[in-house]
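Reading a protein record of the kind used here takes only a little practice. The record below shows the convention in full.

——
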Amino acid sequence: MWRHIASNAVTFLIVALFLLGGAIIWGQGQYRNAGPLETAICLKVDRGSNMSKVSDTLDAQGAVSSPAVFRIGADYEDKTGDLKAGSFLVPEGASMEEIVSIITRGGASSCGTEVVFRIGVTRATVQVRQLDPSTNRFVVEASFNPEEEDAPAQYTAVRNEADTRYRIALAEGVTSWQVVEELRSVDILEGSVEVPAEGLLAPDSYEVRIGESRADLIGRMLDAQQERIAQVWAQRRDDVPLKTPEDMLTLASIIEKETGVAEERRQVASVFTNRLNQGIRLQTDPTVIYGVTRGEGVLGRGLRQSELRRETPWNTYVIDGLPPTPIANPGLASLQAAVDPDETPFIFFVADGTGGHAFAVTLAEHNANVAKWRQIESERANN
């Protein structure tokens, strides 16, 4: 009997440790991943406040997914006692880790006006946003493309105001060339900068000051991506077919370019993982496009058959395995998907008309999905 009890106790301990390990990994992901905030807010921290009150405020404003994880993360980083009083700009999508950094490093402002230079995959925009006191959220007063339009009066009016804050926001999937080209046109920055290697800039939101060096800003982006790469690589599954962090970065960039649907990333990653494991070519169009453009701008049209057959180092229709470099700058979620894909039998996927994809195991299933997609394309073209 005692042997049976001891065996059950050991089993219970193993299960408990497994669940604890899973909870810790989940908590780290919640703390470090992009948060639920869809619109920037101005977070006011009163004198004498504490992390518990702040976490409740953030939860009420929809900025954190778990107040408890926020408090535990701040305590684990030994930053609970560093809480500063003031008003802090919390950008959309800010992770709990980023929010803790914002409210403990100081440098608070009135949060009255902010200018956001958005560097997107297809275009860049400048937004002038003002705080709405009734909701404590920012509303867009003006938005323009600096390459196509003159700056509106709302921008020139706040351009040199002392309390105006500025941010550079990089979208996931932008190329290094795109980032540098757009930074060269940001009129509050100074100095020259070279285009860094593909994939090494962290898509994120960066607060900047008038007169800041472009090279220094690029350096911050490089440092942030290196930190993410190191963290995610250390958490990789043992069975993923990736030999180096560079492999992970390259696969993550392909995942990033193949889907903008967050829930699909690990499924898409599973297709590429299965293909790598089975020695099947990846055959993904974004790599072909990169071979044509080298990341310098948007192709702006469909691929030609001659381009699908053209031998370039990135064309995964003609090369085996991964291309030699990333094809864009992937975000944290795509890095995580590359090293922890879903376990599926899928080998194929194609657009399904909803913004997502239809996945398949066999070529016959895939061909049927392709036929459905072609029908959707035809109907859209005729409308």
Summary: Residues 2-32 form the longest helix (31 residues).
